[in-house]
Design brief:
There is one protein chain. With 228 residues, the protein is of the alpha/beta class. It is built from 6 helices and 7 strands; from the N terminus they run E-E-H-E-H-E-H-E-H-H-E-E-H. The chain has a 7-stranded mixed β-sheet with strand order 1-3-2-4-5-6-7, with helices on both faces. Helix 2 crosses helix 3.
Length: 228
């Protein structure tokens, strides 16, 4: 069961924006995604909805949580009258959303998927808990092997990944990559700060608004003063 979805309303909404569903990570809730939701609202997105995963601590398998994302996406589409939505998801929520796309027909209802620091190839921190969700996130888990085996996992969904090479929650950090996705690495010092870093927030907005997804390119390397 999901709680009532958190919604953010835009006063000066830009026309033609696709509704956006936000999905949080393990031990998080709607408050964690507030900076992202508020940023999208200020950018003119009219319909931004946060789905709160229950339970949020990994006590439920990824597949069960993905059902909650499917329910929230269907509700958002029905409320807005739109055939497709965009999904932006963080950490465990990115893997939950990927399962929704690949196994629960989400790829038929999603236009763009932005994954922020998701454990798509697993994370060694999955061994720190013994519950079902954590087991699903361990490297080489049955769930991850099954998702990786799909030949055309996302259909015509346009996929973007944002991740930090400094991540100490997703280990190794490169587990956040997805084959075929347009990606940016952004050197954010801590995993949870990915949702507050201005470069990440601007990249999410860009991923959702670019007319041509192929124009989503890596950010330039920032050198320290005085050069390398």
């Amino acid at each position: 069961m999901t709680s009532a979805p958190a919604r953010v309303s835009a006063a000066g909404a830009a026309p033609g924006r696709v509704p956006v569903l936000l999905v949080h990570g393990i031990d998080d809730d709607a408050r964690t995604l507030a900076p992202l939701a508020n940023g999208l609202t200020r950018a003119g997105f009219q319909d931004v909805q946060i789905v709160e995963l229950k339970p949020n601590n990994g006590d439920a398998p990824i597949s069960v949580l993905a059902g909650q994302v499917a329910e929230a996406a269907a509700s958002l589409r029905a409320r807005t009258g739109q055939a497709r939505v965009d999904v932006v998801a963080f950490s465990m929520g990115a893997l939950v959303s990927r399962y929704y796309l690949q196994r629960l027909e989400g790829r038929n209802h999603v236009r763009r998927f932005v994954s922020i620091s998701g454990p798509h190839a697993g994370t060694l921190t999955g061994w720190l808990r013994a519950n079902p969700g954590a087991r699903d996130m361990r490297p080489h888990s049955e769930l991850l092997r099954g998702l990786a085996a799909d030949e055309a996992p996302f259909g015509d969904v346009e996929v973007f990944t944002l991740w930090t090479p400094l991540d100490l929650m997703i280990i190794p950090a490169s587990s956040s990559r997805l084959s075929g996705a347009r990606e940016r690495t952004i050197p954010v010092i801590l995993h949870p700060l990915m949702l507050r870093d201005g470069r990440v927030l601007r990249s999410v907005e860009e991923a959702l608004t670019l007319e041509r997804p192929e124009d989503f390119r890596p950010l330039p390397v920032e050198l320290p003063p005085g050069g390398p």
